[in-house]
């Protein structure tokens, strides 16, 4: 990089939500000049950056104009105008992750084909252009239908169990995937810098909220055997190398009941499955992302202790000015870290924040986390 | 507090330097609306707050107008207009630490008298109005002369060793203190909230840069015996209780060669002797200050590991656009955390940032810190 990260370098982040916000918290330590583009004038990052621009992430001109005087651009969301990023790259602006990777990952169909072409274990799938294709699908029921584009935070995903469900299936071009009867959802975050150093965070275990289809509970490190963990980490490293990505890549996987690991989805940015690294690991995913994109030595990913992460979702049935019931009670508990995302209004299942619970005693970390889940509620 | 800290509450911070900056990094987790007043239009906090106002901290009107629509005001520097804070308090704005405490601590003479009146162990002293008083001082040479007001970061302090030194002594009202032949400079940070909960961080040991008279090297926890640590912590708690302070109080002390502990100075705010708590302790001093002033339960102050803090001072002989020589090399080391303060220009001994080095092996933490000191230089 021609300019020093702590000096004249101007970093743009596409998206000014909670991931951008936590990235800024870390970027403060490095003196980084941060520019944010987000369509929401009340985005969580709006008051925490050198320059905030309100505008569409999908619009070519907006993204291009935002980026043209910057040195380096990164993302906190994949749904951005990639044509603009490509043009910026051609003109010498560095884009990490690279535009070609964002383009690939934006399309869940291309993502799956990439896995297949690169011998990355993943579930059987079929690409379909319209709902009609489902009537003679090559996969047998039940299966998962995912929109190829623009699914986010559990949206754009349907489970098709019976012939009757096909009526309610998505119309748009989508992907159907064999239903995986998994034992556990796991994730590995990997980082790669431009000199080719690759480093993984220890594998984590996740539990999802079935109603919202969002990670609700995450524990790190995993207690699965070393062989499984190394296999998961090797898969993540292979994907990072195959992509030649610069930056973070979150790899979500299924551990099946017979011990297979299948890659579910990947995201080329800081990820919900890595929030516990802030308190739980020597380096956080946010610091690691900065180190990767600035081509600095990667940090020490080891766990300092057991960490549990809970997403703080807007309570079902409440909409309006957020009120955090029980917040004082949970702050009185040992090893509880509150991270609010600067969102004024709550709605059902909106990600309002997360809590990290650490404890050297794993059982205690889990029981404290369950207690926090019971006590702390986002109402209105 | 009538308003929720995460909601409509408006927090003002007098001073927008590195302490304010690290306080904001933590306040982001709590959704706090932060307003900053600082005389420097390029202050480290300027781009990280809801509202930045450039103005004098010493001017009554400026401080009063800054504060009159806020709910809560805190400080990151003592040199502020206390009359304005008093008026704001009368009008219902909460000021933590309370204005009467800031007034007391602004004057090193009053501070010393407070120690004496409250049986807090401190060195013998005398207050003088002009330099002439030194010719028949009650203390014998050598002694330390400190300006009663406005000393900061090692400025406003002189050692008077011989009669001849009196010629170069400060003219202004000052304090002379018996020279303490100490074994170690130690510090304890204590926090107190409005419900009267009091909690200390473990005692730390410090080494000063003799040229700049600034903390250069700090290690936590201390290896001195439990009796000494408990005595130091009890002194800090007593001062917090005597003052009935709300917020943090840093208590700097001398441990003398015969095992006495003498209080040197106190500061009612986050302090350089607590920076290592960010990575080294369960709760950081910045989080603890927020918990105290929001009247929340105080956090867990225990050390997670051994932590060494080094101030990153501008190298002597360099002035201009800061350049951090060796930064990449130190980031490749295990357990090294960089905190830059967002200052564009360096000058000799300017506090440009700090580094925290953690390691479960204390000797390794120290040797890594010494290595960082050798490698990392702030030049221009």
UniProtKB/TrEMBL annotation, chains A, B:
Recorded coiled-coil stretches: none
Presence of the UniProt keyword ATP-binding in the record: yes
GO cellular component, one term: cytosol
SUPFAM superfamilies linked: Glutathione synthetase ATP-binding domain-like, PreATP-grasp domain, Rudiment single hybrid motif
UniProt KW keywords: ATP-binding, Ligase, Nucleotide-binding, Purine biosynthesis
EC annotation from Swiss-Prot or TrEMBL: 6.3.4.18
Alphabetized InterPro entries for the sequence: ATP-grasp, ATP-grasp_carboxylate-amine, ATP_grasp_subdomain_1, PreATP-grasp_dom_sf, PurK, PurK_C, PurT/PurK_preATP-grasp, Rudment_hybrid_motif
Function: Catalyzes the ATP-dependent conversion of 5-aminoimidazole ribonucleotide (AIR) and HCO(3)(-) to N5-carboxyaminoimidazole ribonucleotide (N5-CAIR). Catalyzes the ATP-dependent conversion of 5-aminoimidazole ribonucleotide (AIR) and HCO(3)- to N5-carboxyaminoimidazole ribonucleotide (N5-CAIR).
Protein name from the UniProt record: N5-carboxyaminoimidazole ribonucleotide synthase
Source organism: Sphingobacterium detergens
């Amino acid at each position: 990089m021609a300019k020093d990260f702590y000096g004249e370098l101007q970093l743009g982040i596409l998206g000014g939500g909670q991931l951008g916000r936590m990235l800024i918290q870390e970027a403060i330590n490095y003196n980084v000049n941060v520019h944010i583009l987000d369509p929401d004038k009340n985005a969580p990052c709006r008051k925490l950056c050198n320059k905030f621009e309100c505008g569409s992430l999908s619009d070519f001109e907006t993204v291009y104009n935002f980026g043209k005087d910057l040195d380096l651009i990164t993302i906190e969301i994949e749904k951005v105008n990639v044509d603009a990023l490509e043009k910026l790259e051609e003109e010498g602006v560095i884009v990490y992750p690279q535009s070609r990777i964002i383009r690939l990952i934006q399309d869940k169909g291309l993502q799956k084909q990439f896995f297949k072409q690169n011998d990355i274990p993943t579930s059987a799938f079929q690409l379909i252009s319209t709902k009609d294709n489902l009537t003679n699908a090559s996969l047998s029921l039940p299966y998962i239908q995912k929109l190829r584009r623009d699914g986010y935070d559990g949206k754009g995903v349907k489970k098709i169990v019976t012939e009757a469900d096909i009526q309610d299936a998505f119309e748009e071009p989508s992907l159907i995937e064999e239903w995986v009867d998994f034992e556990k959802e796991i994730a590995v975050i990997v980082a790669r810098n431009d000199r080719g150093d690759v480093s993984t965070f220890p594998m984590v275990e996740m539990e999802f909220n079935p109603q919202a289809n969002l990670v609700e509970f995450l524990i790190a490190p995993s207690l699965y055997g070393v062989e499984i963990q190394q296999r998961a980490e090797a898969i993540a490293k292979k994907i990072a190398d195959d992509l030649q990505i610069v930056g973070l890549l979150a790899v979500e996987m299924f551990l099946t009941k017979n011990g297979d690991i299948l890659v579910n989805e990947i995201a080329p940015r800081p990820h919900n499955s890595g929030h516990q690294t802030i308190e739980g690991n020597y380096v956080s995913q946010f610091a690691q992302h900065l180190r990767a994109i600035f081509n600095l030595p990667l940090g020490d990913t080891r766990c300092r202790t057991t960490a549990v992460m809970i997403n703080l979702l807007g309570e079902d049935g409440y909409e309006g000015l957020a009120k955090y019931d029980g917040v004082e009670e949970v702050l009185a508990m040992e090893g509880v870290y509150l991270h609010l995302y600067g969102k004024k209004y709550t709605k059902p299942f909106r990600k309002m924040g997360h809590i990290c619970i650490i404890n050297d005693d794993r059982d205690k970390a889990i029981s404290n986390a369950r207690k926090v889940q019971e006590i702390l509620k986002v109402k209105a």
